[in-house]
User: Fold these one by one.
Assistant:
Number 1:
Amino acid sequence: MELTDQHGLAFALPEGAATPVPDPRLLALMVDGCAAPLVLVGRDGRVLRANRACAEMLSTTVPDLVGRPVWEVFPLISGADTTREQWQRFATGTAEPPAGEQLSTDRIGNRRRVAWTYRPISDELCVVGTGVDVTRERLAEAHWRQKAQTDPLTGLANRAAFEESIVQHVDLRSGLGCGVLFCDLDGFKAINDTHGHAAGDRLLVEISHRLASTVRGGDLVARFGGDEFAILLPAVGLIEMRALSTRLERLVRRPVRLSDGDGELEKAKTVTVGISIGLSVASPGDDPSAALREADERMYEVKARHSTRRVLTLAAEA
């Protein structure tokens, strides 16, 4: 005996079985209420049905997914063309259904990584796909890798660790991409020359604490040397990067009271510095050195604008 629900799904009662047929409506509710993305794909590679979790992951609706090619809606990280070729080989019986990870973007531009597995269930319905959000696992992997190398003065990561981390975040197989902020202090050299290198070092340590306290737990703050810093934001888009940049500019401009090395605060050593920040976004597959170079170039553009404003201010006061 076979029943069919309103979605065309068949439920068979094995011959001689005493167990009643499950209510198709309850099964539909179970699928739609599942927190994991589920998708039913036909032999031609088109989506027959998807649950709400699929639609929410892509910031769309279930009807918008139905009927579309699976390689277009759920492309694996290798790309839509490669995913399509894998499905075509499966349709001809020469390969198993493709499996791998997909990079998706939410409403505000942040990225998530979803691992897909597909299992054939019948000749007619083809396969059912299950998605598992592995974003936290990928971020955790990247986080532990980035802790290996630190700057001895500030305790931050150094340049080598930062560059290694970018490579991991833009890796085509496992990365989520990242945002890069390249930072350079404004006015640090004058303070270092006036108050000495020890005071300059204490200022760098204080600024390092301010930068590190402003970012998220999984972000990476590094000191490249001198008064240059860089910040890596995994899976973040320009909107959050610009908001963070504004917060950092306000925080760094706050006066710093430098101690004399014995813990005593000296009013004569209350100093103020600014910060110039350049932004860039790197996606999986991008050249990591190009992303860093772009942020560096934009930082110098910002610093030039800051210098121009200072000159205009001094001229107005003269």
Number 2:
Amino acid sequence: MDGVRKERRGFASMSTDKQREIASKGGRAAHEKGTAHEWTPDEARAAGRKGGQISRGGRGRLVPPTVDVATLGTAHVSGVDRPASTSD
């Protein structure tokens, strides 16, 4: 056996409707028990802002992650190792 499973198992093998039904029961149970998290407007606003900044930088497009050049060490250009330039 090559170690790769092709069949879906457990929750993933269920239909979307069945998954939704089970998740809904869990959410209702958590609220009845008093352990469910309820977002305040400020928490929701902050989370939405954070997600938007990470996914698209607030500009409607994906933004590549920024890299601090000083922490890179050496740059590999055309197979030649040289110190990373910090004067860019």
Number 3:
Amino acid sequence: MSSDTRPLLVFFGATHSGPARRMESLVSHLARKERARLRVQEIDVDEHPELAERFRVTTVPTLALVKDKRIVGRLEGRVSAPRIEQMLEPHLDGKIAAWASSRRSRSRAGG
């Protein structure tokens, strides 16, 4: 049993899903930026159908935020960084690192 009290963001994807593959870099970036306050786990629904069923995943990609052993947030389909930030903010200690705005400015700069 883990004593880690950080919320867990579970990213359900699949290799055959274009939207999920496009969100992988966004989720990886989030995992790096928020590692002090958030755990992130990627799950391939084809490799782990039992977890997809347990979390009632019907759409790929799906993000599920787990805190204190309960799902406290959920986003289905391809979503933007600001929508993810909006879901996370009430459940993380302190302010969200400016990862969403830094991604947007890098995108505009072509990076």
Number 4:
Amino acid sequence: MYCSGLLPGGAESQVLTPERVACIMGHTPMKRFGEARELIGATLLLASSAGSFITGAEIMVDGGYHAMTI
């Protein structure tokens, strides 16, 4: 059985206030929100034979946000 997770970063939203966006960007080394197309590589890795020995992994595609909040 394989069980791994893809953890995408935040997405731009009309719900976010300018202050919240500034806070998120202040903790994101890439200084931008990700785009859906940027999840493709990690998704293909987990779904293909290239990732056949990956299980129990959490792959963060978040522009470094998680690394800055530890």
